[in-house]
From TrEMBL:
This is Uncharacterized protein DUF1631. It comes from the Bacteria. Residues 1-26, 95-116, 230-266, 611-639 are annotated as: Disordered. It comes from Marinobacter persicus. Residues 100-116, 243-266 have a biased composition (Polar residues).
């Protein structure tokens, strides 16, 4: 490729940069990014293989088909080498970080002139244009992550001047790394552009999550944790701009703080509402304030925490050691706490009692877990696992009362993450081999074994769990994307075949065609129509292929009128030419095509000369009987459609990514996620959490399943938020 493009050549940077040891923080980023890009590249090359196979399958000629198959073979043979070279280039970028040129200087150097363009071959120019477009789009789309990341890399690498910052993850370097790695592929420009397109689609478009992860690792290591972007300003305006920028949110999280603030206010208001309802409930029941009763010793917060430490984390442990075995654990937390209080000897002889606020919190934790144990949105094993966290969560709530008022509370975030991740887990999955189940089990087990009152444990566990989910979701999303594209192609092909079969059946149902002509239409021209239907968006040949059928049937009938006979003479030559070209394209009897066309021409000529009909009308009794049956069933059909109306509305509200649960007649059930809605085929495609297809249903089928109670739409809202809303509803009912 010519170096007049806007892409930077890695060898140039490596030669110009001294080797230096990679800082430990950068080493973590490098390992994460290299693994992530490797996974994404595998998905891209899988998609290239699928695209080339599809193109070969729909090729118009043998030469074109062979070219696609040769490209597939070339990529399959050299794929491992390309992946290895790409990973090595990424590693080299972190070992020898390229220095990012200033924008004006870079634009001046990269703007191609007429002289340089004249030296670039057409194929190289096409590749340069594709790469430059890819880089420009990525720089614009991920600017919010690239700017702070460049600043952090420039600080963590030693000896980097401010005017020459470094960023080994800049899109131009990553794209060039792949361009150089793929130079080993001996393929034509059209196939190379397909490779670049899939690289853009699978790798560059998903670069954002790796940039965010790199920023997170460096922030965690203390590298510019509170980044502020001041931009370029003149000396006179530098101070006002700096002051204005200090009032703006960080570029890393432009809207997170606003969302967190809004969410925090909503949660605080909800918690205050719950406390008011509980206080109202106490007033209604006539309970007297405990502080006013001299015979009662009110336990303060510190004393209560000491008492709670005596509570075992786990009341019962399954013999198997699997925390999800058995039924969900149901504990009376208030009774448990008062039993512990009763065992404490009071020197004053006073009866121990809890503060009203502490008792409210204990009751609230009990109501929270009552909701969790009744929540059908949680799969049974995950429900059992979470139920074992009642005592740890109680200790958290008593120690830190912001659990219910702050959505960002570490323990609350962890519970929400566990519930969200477990929504797609099926009872039929093998627990021992399931990575997600093992991870959730490990989190619960560590809380039960390691929690000693330090809430930081929940923060660490949540961070590890989110990192695990990110890796799993990245793999699943690639599989799901391939599944979705495969299903779209399969369903569109099925729809095309159904349309062709129906049309030919309708047009020939009243004729008894000679066997040879029937074979041409059903086994030959139907394939031409099938391809025309699939390519109609770009080639617009569908109506033309249908007209050929109409013309052929018309020409086979006798024509006495002079005008019709003149029309016949004009139509037949073009008809035969179109038929021959189409049948040759689909390789219909390729060894005998001339013989077949000669026989067809003879039959058409005989029909014209002898004024006799080669085709004769069939009795239309079957059609009339079908219409009678359809008319008899019409009232029932209309009634069923009306009954399904409200359920169809619910189905239409389903969004891509929503989870549902199907229940089978034998009592078994399975959960899956809506992956695609293919409107032209009225088809809803569902996948499991690994991204593999599970089931495909029409809109009416789903509405019918919903009506029969065999389909449930799962609520994916935050578990604790849903629980608190349910608690408010219950308290309002009790105090009404």
């Amino acid at each position: 490729m010519s170096k007049s493009s806007g892409i930077h050549y890695l060898s140039d940077h490596k030669a110009a940069t001294d080797a230096r040891p990679v800082p430990p923080e950068v080493g973590r980023v490098r390992d994460t990014v290299t693994a992530g890009l490797g996974d994404l590249l595998q998905g891209a090359l899988d998609a290239v293989d699928d695209s080339l196979f599809e193109l070969a399958n729909n090729a118009r000629s043998n030469n074109e088909q062979n070219r696609y198959f040769e490209a597939m073979r070339e990529i399959r043979i050299k794929r491992k080498g390309v992946e290895r070279q790409f990973r090595k280039a990424i590693t080299d970028l972190f070992s020898h970080p390229p220095r990012v040129q200033q924008s004006a200087e870079r634009n001046t150097q990269q703007t191609p002139s007429a002289d340089t363009l004249s030296l670039v071959g057409h194929d190289d120019l096409e590749e340069q244009v594709a790469l430059n477009a890819m880089v420009t789009k990525a720089n614009a789309h991920f600017q919010g992550s690239l700017i702070p990341l460049q600043a952090r890399f420039s600080q963590v690498y030693a000896g980097i001047p401010d005017e020459e910052p470094v960023n080994p993850m800049a899109p131009e370097y990553l794209c060039e790394a792949f361009a150089q790695a793929s130079e080993a592929l001996d393929i034509h420009i059209r196939e190379r552009l397909i490779v670049l397109k899939q690289f853009d689609r699978y790798v560059v478009s998903n670069l954002g999550m790796l940039l965010d992860e790199a920023n997170r690792i460096l922030v965690q290591a203390g590298v510019i944790p509170n980044f502020r972007y001041h931009g370029k300003s003149s000396p006179k305006r530098e101070a006002p701009d700096a002051q204005a920028n200090t009032q703006r949110p960080s570029i890393d999280e432009p809207s997170t703080s606003r969302k967190a603030g809004s969410s925090g206010r909503e949660n605080t208001a909800l918690f205050d509402q719950i406390r008011r309802l509980m206080a109202q409930q106490r007033t209604t029941s006539g309970n007297v304030s405990r502080e006013a009763d001299p015979s009662v010793h009110v336990v303060d917060g510190k004393e209560l925490m000491e008492l709670l430490r005596a509570l075992p984390m786990q009341q019962t442990m399954p013999e198997s050691g699997d925390l999800s075995d058995g039924e969900p654990v149901i504990l009376d937390l208030q009774q448990l706490v008062y039993s512990t209080l009763a065992r404490q000897t009071q020197q004053s002889g006073q009866e121990p009692a809890l503060k009203e606020v502490d008792e409210d919190l204990i009751n609230l934790v009990s109501m929270l877990f009552e909701f969790i144990l009744d929540d059908d949105n949680l799969s049974a094993p995950v429900q059992v696992l979470i139920s074992r966290l009642q005592i740890p969560i109680l200790k958290v709530v008593i120690k830190d009362k912001t659990f219910f008022s702050k959505a960002s509370h570490p323990a609350r975030k962890l519970l929400n993450s566990l519930a969200r991740a477990g929504i797609g887990w099926n009872n039929s999955d093998e627990k021992a081999k399931d990575r997600l189940y093992n991870q959730i089990h490990t989190v619960v087990q560590r809380i039960l074994e390691d929690f000693d009152g330090d809430i930081a444990l929940f923060e660490d566990l949540n961070r590890e769990f989110e990192r695990f989910l990110e890796r799993e979701n990245r793999k699943a999303s690639l599989v799901e994307q391939r599944t979705r594209e495969s299903e779209r192609g399969r369903i569109k092909s099925r729809k095309a075949q159904e349309e062709v079969d129906h049309l030919l059946k309708e047009k020939t149902r009243n004729y008894e065609l000679p066997e040879s002509i029937h074979d041409i239409l059903i086994n030959g021209w139907s394939r031409v129509m099938f391809l025309a239907y699939l390519r109609d968006d770009s080639e617009h040949r569908w109506q033309e292929s249908v007209k050929v059928v109409d013309d052929l049937l018309w020409c086979l009938n006798p024509h006495q009128d002079d005008k019709e006979r003149d029309e016949w003479v004009r139509v037949v030559p073009g008809l035969l030419k179109t038929l021959r070209a189409g049948l040759r394209e689909v390789s219909y009897k390729s060894n005998r095509l001339d013989e077949v066309m000669a026989a067809l021409k003879t039959q058409l000529t005989d029909a014209f000369r002898n004024h006799t009909a080669i085709s004769t009308p069939k009795p239309d009794t079957a059609d009339s009987q079908t219409k009678e049956i359809d008319s008899d069933d019409e009232p029932s059909s209309v009634h069923d459609d009306a009954a399904l109306g409200e359920y169809i509305e619910q189905i239409d509200k389903l969004k891509i990514g929503d989870w549902v649960e199907f229940r089978l007649v034998n009592g078994a059930s399975f959960r899956c996620k809506l992956s695609a809605v293919i409107e032209e085929a009225n088809s809803f495609v569902f996948v499991n959490r690994m991204g593999l297809k599970v089931i495909e249903k029409s809109r009416l089928d789903l509405a019918s399943e919903l009506r029969k109670g065999r389909l449930s739409l799962l609520d994916q809202g935050a578990l604790i938020d849903r629980a608190l809303n349910a608690v408010v509803g219950n308290l309002r009912t009790k105090t009404a």
